[in-house]
Amino acid sequence: MPKRYFDRLQTIDHLIRIKGTGTPAALAKRMRISERTLFEFLKMMRELGAPIEYDRYKESYYYAEKGGFNVHFSQSVLNEVDL
What we know:
Layout: H1 3-17, H2 24-31, H3 35-47, E1 52-55, E2 60-63
Antiparallel strand pairs: 1-2
Helix pairs in contact: 2-3
Protein name: HTH domain-containing protein
Organism: Chitinophaga costaii
């Protein structure tokens, strides 16, 4: 998977957390992806357990529960006991 896939995921996640996505059309345009691709991202995020909802009044996606995605590599430091 290309790095931009994870970058997009993190951007969508951030915008959902701050309730700043705008409408699906606006978010797709901002992300420079099609609405269909946006809906695929949202579907995948929901399948991974994200409680994503849409507020029609505020025109923004949001998480129904606190949380978010954390996609990065964490390096472990082994000590002598682990060896």
